[in-house]
């Protein structure tokens, strides 16, 4: 039995390595060769969404936590990166404050901007702050055993509150947000070579994130996370604290979202409250649901597919795309809970059930094959 398990694990590892090799070839060789600079930059944007989707797949698909507020952590990473890039541009031009502050009449740099002028501090903030916020929120929510729709509403309200707060703050761009970044850690963003470097950075980050989540899924923690999703009370009876298990998954998802937001800022060139509110958070979730939240690659493919469809169809149907997106989410959640990744197993099962020859129940066969009881003949005298 042990030998069979070892062989299965070895085969699974080889399959995963082959999949990563194919993905690396597609991202690092095929895509730059066949796509224009504009399309490649657009794909880099989609890869940022895919990084967020991988974390949602871990928290929602494996942990059962309907995270409707990932825009919060995405926005924290994005705004920290934007603040650093703005101050770096201002220092390069010899200005005390960024240009948008001068236009708004702000002559002194706000105190909460100053730490992020340092590149190491900004990078640490991108990695740590989203995780800290998620840990604090998760501790307050999961320790009180808040779950299901209540947790989803709470996380969505947090995203809405952050978007409203940022809209009213002129010190961080207000409604228009932060934009017009000239360089990324010394590399000019107007140079097409540096734009490709950002694509490679996003692609490499996505591969690393997928590899980390796969390791988590196949670890003892991954099994415990699924057990908490399916039978939380039994896990508690066995001596584990389900809240701690959920907090870890929630923090990991926030960590990935913060990194994705930091990459999104220089790739797209702008970050605003419209990119981190309720609507973007739901869009992240729709991509994961359509792709298949319980699988490893389903969230990645779903996020990229939905983002591409939004870009392609919203130009022709600007008012109808939102409704189509909502209909897709309802259809997938209601009729195909496993997403597109579960269509093939479902169709295969239906086909096998349709063409399989009916087998008579064993009890009925036994009854039919039993010999008839012998009847005694009573001779009349």
UniProtKB/TrEMBL annotation:
Q: Which Pfam families match?
A: BPD_transp_2 (PF02653)
Query: Keywords in UniProt for this one?
Result: Cell membrane, Membrane, Transmembrane, Transmembrane helix
Looking up InterPro entries in the UniProt record yields: ABC_transp_permease, ABC_transptr_urea_perm_UrtC, LivM-like
* Keyword Transmembrane helix tagged: yes
Membrane topology field: Multi-pass membrane protein
Q: Name where it mostly resides.
A: membrane
Which spans are transmembrane here?
12-35, 42-60, 66-85, 121-142, 148-166, 197-217, 247-271, 283-309, 321-347
| Protein localization | Cell membrane
**This protein's name:** Urea ABC transporter permease subunit UrtC
User: Lineage of the source organism?
Assistant: Bacteria, Bacillati, Actinomycetota, Actinomycetes, Mycobacteriales
């Amino acid at each position: 039995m042990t030998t069979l398990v070892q062989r299965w694990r070895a085969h699974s590892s080889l399959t995963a390595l082959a999949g990563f090799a194919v993905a690396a070839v597609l991202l690092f060789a095929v895509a730059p060769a066949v796509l224009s600079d504009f399309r490649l930059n657009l794909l880099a944007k989609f890869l940022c969404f895919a990084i967020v989707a991988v974390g949602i797949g871990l928290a929602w698909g494996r942990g059962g936590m309907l995270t409707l507020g990932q825009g919060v952590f995405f926005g924290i990473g994005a705004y920290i990166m934007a603040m650093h890039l703005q101050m770096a541009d201002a220092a390069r031009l010899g200005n005390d404050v960024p240009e948008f502050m001068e236009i708004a009449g702000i002559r002194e740099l706000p105190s909460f901007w100053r730490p992020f002028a340092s590149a190491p501090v900004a990078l640490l903030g991108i990695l740590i702050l989203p995780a800290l916020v998620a840990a604090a929120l998760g501790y307050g929510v999961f320790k009180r055993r808040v779950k299901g729709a209540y947790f989803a509403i709470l996380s969505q309200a947090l995203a809405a509150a952050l978007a409203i707060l940022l809209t009213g703050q002129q010190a961080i761009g207000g409604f228009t947000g932060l934009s017009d970044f000239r360089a990324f850690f010394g590399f000019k963003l107007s140079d097409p070579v540096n734009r490709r470097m950002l694509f490679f950075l996003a692609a490499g980050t996505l591969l690393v994130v997928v590899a980390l989540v796969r390791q988590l899924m196949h670890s003892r923690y991954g099994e415990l996370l699924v057990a908490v999703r399916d039978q939380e009370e039994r896990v508690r009876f066995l001596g584990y604290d389900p809240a701690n298990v959920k907090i870890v998954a929630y923090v990991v998802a926030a960590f990935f979202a913060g990194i994705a937001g930091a990459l999104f800022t220089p790739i797209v060139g702008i970050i605003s409250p419209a990119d981190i509110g309720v609507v973007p958070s739901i869009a992240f979730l729709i991509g994961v649901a359509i792709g298949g939240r319980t699988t490893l690659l389903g969230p990645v493919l779903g996020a990229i597919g939905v983002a591409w469809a939004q870009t392609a169809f919203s130009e022709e149907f600007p008012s109808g795309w939102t409704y189509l997106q909502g209909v897709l989410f309802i259809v997938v959640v209601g009729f195909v809970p496993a997403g597109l990744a579960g269509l093939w197993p479902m169709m295969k099962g239906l086909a096998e059930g349709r063409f399989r020859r009916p087998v008579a129940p064993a009890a009925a066969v036994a009854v039919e094959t039993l010999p008839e009881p012998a009847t005694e003949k009573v001779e009349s005298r």
